Amino acid sequence: xxxxxxxxxxxxxxxxxxxxxxxxxxxxxxxxxxxxxxxxxxxxxxxxxxxxxxxxxxxxxxxxxxxxxxxxxxxxxxxxxxxxxxxxxxxxxxxxxxxxxxxxxxxxxxxxxxxxxxxxxxxxxxxxxxxxxxxxxxxxxxxxxxxxx
Length: 149
Known about the structure:
Layout: E1 2-6, H1 14-19, H2 23-28, H3 34-48, H4 54-71, E2 76-83, E3 87-92, E4 94-95, E5 103-108, E6 111-118, E7 128-129, E8 134-139, E9 144-148
Antiparallel strand pairs: 1-2, 2-3, 2-4, 3-8, 5-6, 5-7, 8-9
Helix pairs in contact: 3-4
């Protein structure tokens, strides 16, 4: 899931992102959206460093995007959520612009033994705002950790 944007994507980072991809990942792109290209950059990172955790891969992807955005003087925001079935990693991140909001709640009485993540609180409850430029990591045992860039 990606909530955000890359400013003037087709005119700015479309080609530079593609230039960083392996041929296999490059060939797997079928669309033209910034979301698909961010995902391709993430998958490329996972292939390049096979033992990297999702957290590390998403962190490196956001660092690469930041470097590209600064080089091309564009803004971007990237609230991304990805899971491998064992852990879930969510980012609230932006460079040069405001990051979209991101909230989480754990063990709500209506959803015990669960972590919910949403752009805005979905119902009254003990929702927590994720800090800007942070990664939220949720493990299978619902252990939750927030790391800031």
